[in-house]
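Sequence, please.
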């Protein structure tokens, strides 16, 4: 049984582990196929590729925060060329969008909660390659204002209206293809803390995502039951889409276990995947 995890985050985006900590966990947990899929950045790819032993298959990836024809979605790009100019241009565009969102959240904390970030905290935030809500929440946790990042986000940040700062979904999908990659719809029934879509809601959205050019579904996911996984696999097979899977591991920033591919954390063989260009 070849163990895999195709959805991992480092502190290059909103994970807590450094690249070297990720590498050590991959080795210690005997994973054989892995992908780094940081949010809207590719800065960690070179380091992890050069640090992993040759017996572990590494797939360079990215997760683009998008909105496709009104559908908020995350698009995983697998087997990308991280030096592709179109992809780097899009990522730079996203960096500016995230900075705009960050400034809105900083002002919200000050005006709504009378919480003003100091220069050291601001310097740390603006140094992030891909700054997200979790980073702001980490500061609030460090200040003792919440027990964990989830609590901090719900209490202090979820009421902040930041507007749409996501990539256009079709642009994200097409850019991944231009970079030689395969675009896959991440956690298509809903991600961490989100209410899962019912069958009709999902099928309606699936038609739109296929029309936008998606080529695969993340069927195995840490928050999905066996029933949900089976449903997604059938949908993928019926529509000629690739089947992938990953934990969405963020280190200490989420309660997702390393390599967890279903709600019961049962092991899954890579033979269950259907993405021949990669596996």
């Amino acid at each position: 049984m070849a163990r895999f995890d195709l959805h991992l985050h480092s502190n290059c985006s909103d994970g807590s582990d450094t690249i070297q900590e990720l590498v050590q966990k991959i080795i210690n947990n005997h994973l054989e196929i892995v992908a780094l899929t940081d949010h809207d950045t590719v800065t960690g790819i070179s380091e992890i590729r050069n640090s992993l032993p040759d017996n572990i298959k590494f797939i360079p990836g990215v997760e683009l925060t998008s909105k496709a024809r009104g559908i908020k979605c995350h698009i995983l790009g697998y087997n990308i060329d991280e030096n592709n100019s179109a992809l780097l241009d899009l990522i730079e565009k996203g960096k500016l969008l995230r900075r705009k969102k960050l400034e809105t959240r900083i002002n919200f904390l000050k005006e709504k909660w009378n919480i003003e970030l100091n220069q050291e905290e601001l310097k740390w935030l603006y140094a992030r390659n891909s700054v997200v809500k979790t980073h702001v929440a980490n500061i609030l946790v460090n200040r003792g204002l919440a027990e964990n990042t989830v609590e901090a986000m719900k209490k202090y940040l979820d009421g902040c209206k930041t507007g749409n700062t996501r990539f256009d979904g079709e642009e994200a999908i097409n850019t991944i293809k231009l970079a030689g990659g395969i675009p896959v719809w991440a956690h298509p029934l809903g991600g961490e803390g989100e209410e899962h879509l019912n069958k009709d809601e999902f099928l309606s959205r699936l038609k739109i995502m296929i029309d936008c050019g998606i080529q695969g579904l993340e069927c195995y996911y840490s928050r999905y039951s066996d029933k949900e996984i089976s449903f997604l696999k059938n949908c993928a097979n019926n529509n000629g889409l690739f089947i992938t899977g990953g934990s969405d591991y963020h280190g200490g920033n989420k309660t997702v276990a390393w390599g967890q591919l279903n709600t019961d954390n049962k092991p899954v063989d890579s033979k269950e995947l259907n993405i021949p260009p990669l596996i």
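The domain at 1-279 is CATH 3.20.20.140 (TIM Barrel).
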